[in-house]
Amino acid sequence: MIRNVLTIAGTDPSGGAGVQADLKTFSAHGTYGMSVITALVAQTTTGVSAVHEVPAGFVTEQLRTLLDDVRVDAVKIGMLSDAAIIGAVAAELERYRLPNVVLDPVMVAKSGDRLLAEEAVLALRDELLPRADLITPNLPEAADLLGAEEITDVADMPAQAARLRRLGVARVLLKGGHLGGSSSVDVLDADGAVEFLREERVDTKNDHGTGCTLSAATAALRARRPDWATAVREAKEYLSGALRAAEQLEVGQGHGPVHHFHDRWD
Ligand SMILES: Nc1ncnc2c1ncn2[C@@H]1O[C@H](COP(=O)(O)OP(=O)(O)O)[C@@H](O)[C@H]1O
Ligand SMILES: Cc1ncc(COP(=O)(O)O)c(N)n1
User: Fold this and answer.
1) Which of 166, 181, 172 is nearest to 138 (CA)?
2) 90-104: per-residue pLDDT in tens?
3) What residue numbers bound the domain in which 53 lies?
4) Residue 154 located in a structural domain
5) CA of 213 to the centre of ligand 1 (A)
6) Domain-located, residue 258
7) Is the predicted ipTM greater than 0.90, yes or no?
8) Structurally, how many domains does the chain consist of?
9) CATH number, domain with residue 119
10) Within a domain: residue 102?
11) Which of 53, 73, 75, 123 is the most buried (most CB within 10 A)?
12) Which stretches of the chain drop beneath a pLDDT of 50?
């Protein structure tokens, strides 16, 4: 049976991040992709020029219209933009008891532009974190959620992940991409085990959409795999392949996107 996977996120006309990246990732994993849009973002490889939010009530409308009809096997949540949209999504997650929820707590784009209002971070922490099966913060997002300093050492990542779990989150994938270095290290704290996931760092400036791709791949894979650790490990491998494939792309002047190739297109 083909699995149905939903993304709840903002858009990227350049196709590198947000809903567009998520749908490409779902297809690449042999799942059926669907999307509920929270914000239209005028952005490309060089940054964000404007955000047009969808009214929270219309986010609810999209979710109910979809969920009254279609079975959903996994969900990825990305950009939510403001506290009203967070509340709307939290309410529908509860109402429909959606399974396999991956929450990427998107706050700031690589270009430095905010994708979540600063005052909405508490709503994200209190209303959505407890409803997610896995959260995938990068290091600045982890610090914001904890009201703590951003850590700068891989050795401190397991303790930071444990602090996040104590906020009432089932599982944490703490992403260490912002640390730089020759390998890219993430820490998974899930189901009683803590695991370092290491991949060689791909030397590229085409890294737009890495976080979106990793969380979307995890949701798609969780719909197809028996446990979270397997889904996360495979998603991380997929991301490295998508970063390597990005070297072939000629998209934009700035941080280009990763590429969702299919082997049979080679
Ligand atoms: N150049 C790279 N090579 C390999 N993996 C990378 C590279 N850049 C980022 N990653 C990986 O991409 C994922 C997201 O990166 P990160 O920068 O931590 O988060 P975000 O994209 O949310 O800011 C992480 O798994 C990170 O390890
Ligand atoms: C709509 C949207 N959502 C998320 C991101 C973050 O992108 P990244 O995966 O590069 O952190 C983005 N730039 N735009």
Assistant:
1) 172
2) 999 999 999 999 999
3) 4-252
4) yes
5) 10
6) no
7) yes
8) 1
9) 3.40.1190.20
10) yes
11) 75
12) 266
